[in-house]
Amino acid sequence: MKVVLQNLTKIFPSRNKKTPEEQVVAVNDFTFEIPDGKLVGLLGPSGCGKSTTLYMICGLQKPTGGSIFFGEDDVTHLEPEHRGVGLVFQNYALYPHMTVKQNILFPLQNMKKELMKEVDERREAMAAEQLAAFNAANGIEDAAADAAKVPVEVAAAAENVAAEGITAENAAEVTVAKPPVFRPKLPARQKMLKELMLDRAYMAARLVQIDNLMDRKPSELSGGQQQRVAIARALVKMPRVLLLDEPLSNLDARLRLQTREEIRRIQRETGITTVFVTHDQEEAMSISDLIVVMKLGVVQQTGKPQDIYDNPANLFVAKFLGTPPINVFDGEVKNGALYVGEDCLMKLPGIADQPVHVGIRPEGFVLDKNGPLHMELVNVEVMGRDMSVISKNAAAQTPTVRSIIDSDLRSEIGGETVSFSIKPNKIFVFHKETEERLY
Cα 314 from chain centroid? Predict the structure, then answer.
């Protein structure tokens, strides 16, 4: 199901009657299309409007302006229960007095009318199968053709009666074979409804691999298992859109990694259009087909995770994506060259002389004793395959600069200073005031 957001805006009014103009713009003119069957991550710091956007998609929040479309259907003012969405909350929101099975079944209690239609369709299919078997057992190849033959057979029977001398007086003694009558044998509708609901519940449970925990209470489950129950409860309705509101924030690091891989697997197996809200850029980049980076209710950049990482639109996006984060320096474009302090890093034609922000990814540093960028060495942290070189530079906007280098080059580091050359595709230049990217 394709989801289209057009100029979506959400404004919360001021709570202070004396200053009604101090309203909060949570989401400002959000326009984006979520392709059918894709997993899209809404990414940004706390207060950027990502959860508000999610709640407007599901109908829990009403937009101040703009429109929401599911496919070609305008659902902007449609109630949440009629949108066909599944929502997984940050705190799971499981019913503690219910078993896992009862928790998963709960959303289906409000869908009995829709499910009863499916029951009736199943009953019709069963009746058709039984009729076909009945016809085959009684040598009836085509019931419609047999019906068409009835007038002819009646006329032939009349001729036989006259020929055999059957009269009104002896007609009672004549035995007439009655045609077989078809009566379908079907289970009760309520019984079939219950079986259908259980089938749906166990199917969802198997999908998230908790079908062996159906009789447990939430208090008897780990955090990861509770999260899977919440996802199964959202999936059991077979939603058109699945919405996940920071579903991994309450899990430890190892469980977060495992569960996010499970979410990606489930999304691929079901093909459900999924919106995933998180403030963790590593989560968003690892499992999303597309990400939307937000700041203060405004979309900063949208695209594939690696494309945004390699080509950030502005300084905020560059700083928000990446672990370790990008290193930022005060720089200057002068006479067609880029300077950090006194070090000339590269030629930069076509950009006017001006002060700038210079961003360099940690993996963009290359150990080079003749390199243009000179740093004061602080420490070296060996992390197995790689090592992290911690250094200082007077032009850096942070106390230290972190560079990721192959650990095989450890022997090349010595003394109080270290020099680097910079990979051209790992350095970015941003406007000093607007912070928009220049290079």
Answer: 26
CA–CA separation, 348 and 335 (whole Å): 9
User: What one-character-per-residue DSSP string does 83-139 give?
Assistant: TTEEEE-TT----TTS-HHHHHHHHHHTTHHHHHHHHHHHHHHHHHHHHHHHHHHTT
Residues 269, 274, 277, 280, CA torsion sign: positive
| Residue range of the domain that includes 69 | 3-84+239-303
Reading the block at residue 32, the tokens are 């984006």
Residues 329 and 298 in one domain: no
pLDDT at 26 over 50: yes
What mean pLDDT, rounded, does the chain reach?
Answer: 88
Region of poorest pLDDT, from 99-108, 167-176, 290-299: 167-176
Residue 180 lies in a domain: no
Of the candidates 341, 332, 328, 314, the one whose C-alpha atom is nearest the C-alpha of residue 400 is 328
Residue in this structure with the two tokens 């066909």, named with its chain if needed: 84
User: For strand 386-392 and strand 373-383, is the pairing parallel, antiparallel, or unpaired?
Assistant: antiparallel
Q: Are 431 and 395 in contact (CB under 8 A)?
A: no
Query: What is the pTM for the complete model shown?
Result: 0.80
Q: Is-contact 403 388, C-beta < 8 A?
A: yes
**Which CATH number characterizes residue 291's domain?**
3.40.50.300
Residues contacting 424, CB < 8 A, separation 6+: 346
**Is 117:180 a contact under the CB 8 Å cutoff?**
no
Of 345, 346, 367, nearest to 415 by C-alpha is 367
Angle in degrees, CA 82, 87, 91, rounded to 5: 145
Tell me, rounded to whole angstroms, the distance of Cα 412 from its chain centroid. Answer: 46
CA distance 342 to 393: 11
Contact 363, 422 (CB under 8 A): no
